[in-house]
Amino acid sequence: MRKAFTMVEMMIVCAILMLILIPTFRIMSHGRQTASKGMQRNQVVMSGQQILSQIKMDLAISCFVFVNDTTQDINNIFTETSSGGDTTLSFFTFNGGQYENKVIPTSDGPESFRRMNRVEYRLSSQPGSPFKKLERRLITHPKLPAAPDTFRVLSDQVNFFEIRPETITSAGFSRSFFRISLQLFDQKEDSGQHGEKFIADFMDTANPTILNSIINNPGQNRNWYTDPHDQN
Fold it and tell me: Where does residue 98 rank: exposed (0-12), middle (13-18), buried (19+ CB within 10 A)?
């Protein structure tokens, strides 16, 4: 005659199963959280690289209004304004709209001025939060067709963003460039994850090719200037 399991034996079996299953569940849960955090950090790295690529593209073909007898300097290219906790960087560029396909001259004469677009990068903060939002707005020239994508939120996980002009002079030649600094949090503010938030650092430089060409080749490439009387 086969004996039945006693209550004590069943309790022992359940206890053994719990000792096996609980650590297994914790290992699987921790692995899932680690994988999720790894994916988030990969997304942050990709997002930061895309933002830098967009900024470099705008700055590489940045431009300025031509004024006779005025020395051109990298500081003339963009302006920085602050209002409360928000910062806006604004500069002219040949990027955006139809300039993605070709540069459109205003005439067929020897001084073929170009109409330019304007780009704004706005860094806005939220009261009581370390997270900032970085936005890009493209203002097309009024005489050019409007671009299809004129406003984008680049990231809402920004800790720090800065563009600084730099100039290096050597052997009678100068080279100007922009230093771009960007910091992104590794998770969103409303992610619900606890623990310390890590920051991803991004840094790159952008070479304003038109400005450097004009500075190092005075009197040439004037057709790359823009007409100050053609802004309306």
Answer: middle
Residues 6+ apart with CB under 8 A from 86: 122, 123, 124, 125
Burial class from Cβ neighbours inside 10 Å (0-12, 13-18, 19+) for residue 197 reads: middle
Q: What kind and span of H or E run contains 106?
A: none
Q: What is the pTM of this model?
A: 0.69
CB 66, CB 226: distance < 8 Å: yes
Lowest model confidence (mean pLDDT) among 32-36, 111-115, 168-172: 32-36
> Strands (DSSP E) along the chain, which ranges?
62-63, 78-83, 86-93, 117-125, 132-139, 151-170, 173-185, 199-206
Torsional sign, CA 223, 224, 225, 230: positive
Of residues 191 and 174, more confidence is placed in 174
**What is the Cα–Cα distance from 208 to 210, expressed in whole angstroms?**
6
Report the C-alpha gap between 47 and 44 in whole angstroms.
5
142, 122 Cβ separation under 8 angstroms: no
Pairing of strands 78-83, 173-185: unpaired
| Alpha-carbon span 229 to 232, nearest angstrom | 8
Burial (CB count <10 Å: 0-12, 13-18, 19+), residue 210:
buried
Task: Dump strand ranges (E) for 61-116.
Answer: 62-63, 78-83, 86-93
Contact 133, 124 (CB under 8 A): yes
Structure confidence at residue 135 (pLDDT): 94
pLDDT of residue 42: 78
